[in-house]
Amino acid sequence: MAECVDDLLERGNGWSERIRDRVTQLPPELTELVLHLGRTGTFWDWHYKVDAAWKRQTKALLKTDGARELVAEAIRALSAGGSLHDCTDPNITWQDLWAKSDRTPTRDLANGFALAAGYLARGASPTQLDDLVADLLTVARKNAHVLDGYYKRDDDLCGAVFTALADLSAMEALWTLHREVQPGAHSHRHLAKVAKKTATRLGVPPHQLQERTVPTHGVGADGTLKLGWIGCGAIWLNIPYEAVITLSSSGRVTVDWIDVDDGGATTRTSSPFRSPTGLKTKYLPHNVDVTRLLARKIEETLSSERRRLYALQHENRLWPHAEWARYYRDHPLTGIFARALIWEYETEEGIWTAGLPHETGCHTLDGRTVDIAGTTRVRLWHSKRATPDQVDAVRVFLAERDVPQPYDQIKDAT
After folding, report:
1. Residues 237-263: pLDDT tens digits?
2. Integer Rg of the chain from CA
3. Residue 244 C-beta-side C-alpha neighbours within 13 Å
4. Tell me, what's the pLDDT at 262?
């Protein structure tokens, strides 16, 4: 039976070599589990549906002593290196980045281990679950072109990880992936589906689902996104030139087109993001259009977020500061507008202090920088709750700092 397991492991595949000794020296019960996990090729495809009989048998086999540890170790090994598609020979790794991901026994086994990881919640300690979710998150990020580096995209494996995280009710990990994985990835539709179903099952309110699924489109905390060839940038468009998409503090989007064959000559354009003369002829229209399309998607998301934040002034919502900071202040797109609005912080019980967001707290209207605890409640400032003196103070505060607000917070003040 060990020889059959060995048949599932490709020679030269990095993950296979990392787990070979572990999975080929097992007692019969665990060997049966590994062989069973390698049979996902009979059902796991772009539909991302788990075979019910396979699932029942997997859960039964996971009751074997050592089975849970084996699955966790396989996932830990899968999160290492270049994940599923790295090779012991770096030259082969580079070549494999260009090749289509054909179905292989090793890919089927990796999908099986990923799906099985979703059944490990019962009986696991909080620390074990946290470690498992962290490893699954790394596997998904590497195989979904979220991270910088030479990682090959694998939608089948990503879909298996998304399913496992949903089974584990790992909502925070699903939120993270929903923000980071690009809608252009085939598996993203499955991610959106399982995130919504899991949120509904856990009783997450619709407004929280909305604010936690705002995509970043790969834009970094500094408001920029670099595009280029394989391994360059968090979004792999594999374009034969370079481009930098930049978001200004006012929400304006620009594209710097960098002609790598012309000494790095750079041309900046804004919406509708027309490319420099001759760039399409040199680098082909489809390569240029993907950058324009991404820039437009970023603009669309920014417009949507501007409207959503405007609507918040009528909802009287409250957030714990740590939660609000993550999904508003620090979000690469939402944060552009959130950081330009006046918010109120409940610095003492029943006492609300208005100010602009700061990386550690807020800049108050009287010029102080106040640290804010993570449990402090936050709400959007509204002129109707303020006194005339407070409205005047906000008006002067914004004017002195020339803050480019997404909308005028004091226009309704009387």
Report:
1. 567 888 999 999 999 999 999 988 878
2. 25
3. 16
4. 79
Contact 376, 347 (CB under 8 A): yes
Rounded CA separation 325/374 (Å): 9
Tokens of 222: 């500094």
Residue 307: strand, helix, or coil = helix
* CA 7 from centroid of its chain's CA atoms: 34
Q: Alpha-carbon distance 101 to 97, whole Å?
A: 9
Give the domain ranges of the chain. 2-212, 224-304, 313-401
Question: Which pLDDT score, from 0 to 100, does residue 4 have?
Answer: 87
How far is residue 118's CA from residue 167's CA, in Å, rounded to a whole number?
5
Contacts 24+ apart (CB under 8 A), 199-203: 199/171, 199/174, 201/169, 202/169, 202/171
Residues 341, 309: Cα–Cα separation, whole Å: 9
pLDDT band per the 50, 70, 90 thresholds, residue 343: very high
Q: What is the mean pLDDT of the chain?
A: 90
Query: pLDDT exceeding 90 applies to what percent of the chain?
Result: 67
Examine the pLDDT at 369 and tell me if it is beyond 60: yes
Instruction: For residue 353, list its beta bridge partners.
Output: 345
Q: Can you tell me the mean pLDDT for 344-370?
A: 89
**Alpha carbon separation from 131 to 56, 73, 115, 267 (Å, rounded):** 25, 11, 16, 45
Cα distance between residue 9 and residue 24, in whole Å: 10
Chain centre to alpha carbon of residue 71 = 24
How far from 222 is each of 97, 242, 304, 330, CA to CA, in Å? Answer: 29, 18, 20, 10
Q: Among residues 120, 147, 148, which one has the least CA distance to residue 133?
A: 120
Comparing C-alpha atoms, which of 209, 112, 124, 107 is closest to residue 168?
A: 124
CA neighbours closer than 13 Å in the CB half-sphere of residue 141: 22
pLDDT at position 180 is 87
DSSP string spanning 95-156?
HHHHS-----HHHHHHHHHHHHHTT--TT--HHHHHHHHHHHHHHHHHHTT-SSSS----HH
**pTM for this prediction:** 0.86
- Please report the DSSP string for 35-59 in residue order: HHHTTGGGT-STT----HHHHHHHH
For tokens 């508003």, what's the residue?
Answer: 328
Amino acid 2: pLDDT:
45
Q: What is the pLDDT of residue 361?
A: 87
Q: Which two tokens stand for residue 72?
A: 């966790």
pLDDT for 347 = 83
